[in-house]
């Protein structure tokens, strides 16, 4: 059966290409929730950039800021001079020093992802693509962060898109699968 399917795909000029991917477990970092699992996000290499496919539940409904942060650590740490949940993740991934929050593919932080859409039941399932991130090596060892607020992809009127506090985080491990 598999041979027939492969032959049919080849005859049509199509191929079944396996893309490298990593699945990142995501946990709540809000102190009232403890370290509660919210699900996972699968990151897949695609020709258009890395695709982030969430399978998350238990988030506040609405648009949420969604970013890759510098450090692969979701522990407490300093944010604007105060200890904050997931502060040890540092700021948005910005290896080129743009120091600008412009949204995905617009010349700002490499870690700027399209906003995460959470439905009325608290689930996030809609994939987003980050065209500026090309390979899993771009994000391995970093943190994947979900913020309390939305994201306007600008530094005004509020810095970093206005996403505010960090509510969920996951460390992007070094293990990839095909």
Automatic annotation (TrEMBL):
<feature type="region of interest" description="Disordered">
    <location>
        <begin position="89"/>
        <end position="115"/>
    </location>
</feature>
<keyword id="KW-0862">Zinc</keyword>
<protein>
    <recommendedName>
        <fullName>Superoxide dismutase [Cu-Zn]</fullName>
        <ecNumber>1.15.1.1</ecNumber>
    </recommendedName>
</protein>
<keyword id="KW-0560">Oxidoreductase</keyword>
<feature type="domain" description="Superoxide dismutase copper/zinc binding">
    <location>
        <begin position="39"/>
        <end position="172"/>
    </location>
</feature>
<dbReference type="InterPro" id="IPR001424">
    <property type="entry name" value="SOD_Cu_Zn_dom"/>
</dbReference>
<keyword id="KW-0186">Copper</keyword>
<dbReference type="Pfam" id="PF00080">
    <property type="entry name" value="Sod_Cu"/>
</dbReference>
<keyword id="KW-0479">Metal-binding</keyword>
<feature type="signal peptide">
    <location>
        <begin position="1"/>
        <end position="20"/>
    </location>
</feature>
<comment type="function">
    <text>Destroys radicals which are normally produced within the cells and which are toxic to biological systems.</text>
</comment>
<dbReference type="GO" id="GO:0004784">
    <property type="term" value="F:superoxide dismutase activity"/>
</dbReference>
<comment type="similarity">
    <text>Belongs to the Cu-Zn superoxide dismutase family.</text>
</comment>
<dbReference type="InterPro" id="IPR036423">
    <property type="entry name" value="SOD-like_Cu/Zn_dom_sf"/>
</dbReference>
<dbReference type="InterPro" id="IPR024134">
    <property type="entry name" value="SOD_Cu/Zn_/chaperone"/>
</dbReference>
<keyword id="KW-0732">Signal</keyword>
<dbReference type="InterPro" id="IPR018152">
    <property type="entry name" value="SOD_Cu/Zn_BS"/>
</dbReference>
